[in-house]
Amino acid sequence: MSVSALSPSRALGGVSGLLQVVSLHGLVLLLIKAAQLYLRRQWLLKALHHFPSPPSHWFYGHKREFQEEGELPHLLKRVEKYPRACVRWMWGTRALLLVYDPDYMKMVLGRSDPKAQIIHRFIKPWIGTGLLLLEGQTWFQHRRMLTPAFHYDILKPYVGIMADSVRVMLDKWEELVSQDSHLEIFGHVSLMTLDTIMKCAFSQQGSVQTDRNSQSYIQAIKDVSHLIISRLRNAFHQNDLIYRLTPEGHWNHRACQLAHQHTDAVIKERKACLQKEGELEKVRSRRHLDFLDILLFARMENGSSLSDEDLRAEVDTFMFEGHDTTASGISWILYALASHPEHQQRCREEIQSLLADGASITWDHLDQMPYTTMCIKEAMRLYPPVPVISRELSKPITFPDGCSLPAGILVSLSIYGLHHNPKVWPNPEVFDPTRFAPGSTRHSHAFLPFSGGSRNCIRKQSAMNDARWPWP
What we know:
By secondary structure, the chain is mainly α.
């Protein structure tokens, strides 16, 4: 008696055979992946063998050493022990060279290597491909297009606007300190810098310091920044699909949406204003345009050169860097001065002598406060607003001491480590403004609060102006 082709025994045999084939393929793929990871680790070990590295776990690398609360103390120990650079293993098959030597910094920043994509792909959903993340010729075109927005003739009239925003913040502080002697200033400084940016770069009217929507935007930026750092520390969250399914991934998506809603509203409002009768011609007749108008005119006059996506990416980038990074820098400057009241008093006396007649601060005053500028620079040395930047080597590099690296290696330029390197700055933890006294000399790349090379901060001059105000 023959067995039917559809009998249960034959069906089960077919399923079993299929499972065996799938299992075999899975095992082969697993072995191939394991071999790739092994070869990758061996390549990294060979590529980085010139540079010192503390003992690391074969899988976790130095992860446990660089936990959130203890990262900076461990970094400073490395800087003291290995004065030029050292290897940092993120985990078993991913490593980078941590650099904090001015000669090394100068060599890397003098090249045209792209920024490290492993980090910036986490930022892209938030700020898009704007000036911060662009590379090559497109970056050069956007940089050249936007540079006129930071011309001296543009920045000079902003001084009065900045001073008005500071006064609003100080009035709020006077009311708050009458109720409590302790004040968390970063949120208030963020609103002040956002207020300044909105008025100066985006032609906004009114004050955002009392606007609830602006406060939700600042909270969204704070959330996204925290989530990006948290994601960098989690090996499993490196995968985009896995991350999207996590609570942190949902939180990040929602925070990005809130940030985009804010910037979309700013762009929409300015477009509507320019469509009013006579407004377009009036703005076009100006000698210099502000940041958003440059972007909108580029879009209107040559639609193919700047897409709507490009426009929003530049607005998202500038709005974040223009207010959050500046707010961080100002907050740390105030902290440094409050921690050293003798220097704070000298700054106060210097500024009061300039404004003895009660006049408001002007552009010309900014170069007449040398001691205040020295204190600002020393605070930015101790607490750099951007503590690290990264590059991925596009070609081999050999440093002045003969150590070399092949293409493909990630280089993390630790500005915080550089500014606290005892070989570069004697007694680096001491607040000493005389390091920046007129006539003092130092390595060209010993002090990099605004990065260096061709990709330095486009707002360098504007950011320094933001910091030089008559603080109480």
